[in-house]
Amino acid sequence: GESSANIISERTGTITSVQWMKDNSPLSPSNSIIFSSDNRSVSIRPVQRSDSGEYQCTYSNPVSSETVKLSLIINYGPDDVFIQGEDVVDLGVRVSLSCSANSEPSASFSWKFNGSDTGVTTDTFTIDQTDFTH
């Protein structure tokens, strides 16, 4: 299903203005960004990767203003998984394969060879010297 994020900033006293920013730019309403009628909360539905960032809300009245900040991290992935390396090599040479993927938090890795776990848990799998079994 769709994920959503609700950012609510609560302050007391007389407030004449509430301004929202994301990454130091004004936050504007859109199909996925909806402000409450009193402008004190923002709903984001559905959340996208691009919604990650620093949000800030500034409350103002004739006497003063106050800004509160929130860092929003959107978790996703892994996706766009890609393995890079030579697929044809001579016997006896060293071979390194590297894997990359987009994700938040960072992806963990495990390598298999012919269906068996190799025990390698880094983004790079190296065969020091190829033979007939590799």
TrEMBL record:
Keyword list (alphabetical) reads:
Disulfide bond, Glycoprotein, Immunoglobulin domain, Signal
Q: Where are the transmembrane segments?
A: none
Q: Among its keywords, does the record have Acetylation? A: no
Domain (Ig-like) ranges: 1-71, 78-134
Domain of life per record: Eukaryota
Q: Does the keyword Glycoprotein apply?
A: yes
Q: Which InterPro entries does the record associate with it?
A: Ig-like_dom, Ig-like_dom_sf, Ig-like_fold, Ig_I-set, IgSF_CEA-related
Its protein name is Ig-like domain-containing protein
